[in-house]
Amino acid sequence: xxxKQKGKSGFxxxxxxxxxxxxxxxxxxxxxTFSQTYAGSPVWSADGRVVAFASEHGSGLDIYQRPVNQSxxxxxxxxxxxxxxxxxxxxxxxxxxxxxxxxxxKSKNDVWVLPLFGECKPFAVVQSEFNEWxxxxxxxxxxxxxxxxxxxxxxxxxxxxxxxxxxxxxxIAGGIQPRWRRDGNELFYLAPDRKLxxxxxxxxxxxEAESPRPLFETTLDAFQLRQTYAVSNDGKRFLLxxxxxxxxxxxxxx
Length: 254
What we know:
By secondary structure, the chain is an all-beta fold. The protein has no helices and 23 strands. Strands 17, 18, 19, 20 and 21 form a five-stranded antiparallel sheet that branches. A four-stranded antiparallel sheet has the order 5-6-7-8, with no helix packed on it. Strands 9-10-11-12 form a four-stranded antiparallel sheet, with no helix packed on it. Strand 1 (4-6) and strand 2 (12-14) form a beta hairpin. The radius of gyration is 19 Å and the shape is globular. The model is unreliable at 1-5 (pLDDT under 50).
């Protein structure tokens, strides 16, 4: 349904936006959520058994989880019941941390982490007067890549985790949507001209990054709050969420 509505949180959504699952070969499409309002920004758990997502169950946009086999109903992970709005961004490979970004009237978009153990008390990892979003854990969980507009344009940065020591710039002339290769030795991002870029990195005792190099041109939508592509484990294949050109011939009206 393309009719927009404004939910209780004030977040403008399309009616009954839901999350669906589909196999990599394009078969087996099935519905995962039944919020009847808004469910979006899904992220997988490392074992592939659970999906975390933003949903409007009450008076705010909160974070819930649901097993892929639908054996249980939606369970709240982070429930604020009021602004700020929160959207999940990534799940650490050990399953201990869920990274998300939240809105704030003073600091705009900030990157936060929800520990899924102990007291489960959220804490900010990147918070400033600028916008920070699209954060991703490195495969070993010791680094995060994120986007910030602190330089005047969106750029990709890397920061240590969970200790916030040091920040390393990755992109040169602008960049968004960072993704890690599974072995942690390469970072990908989308340049302003929509070229997909690759950066060789080292994440041993300290962090080192080489100069970005272009891989190929894309038609990805740059104006998204989430990554619009995925990378295979070996970094040799990419799944792109791109528009397909219509085969319908143009119509000329005189």
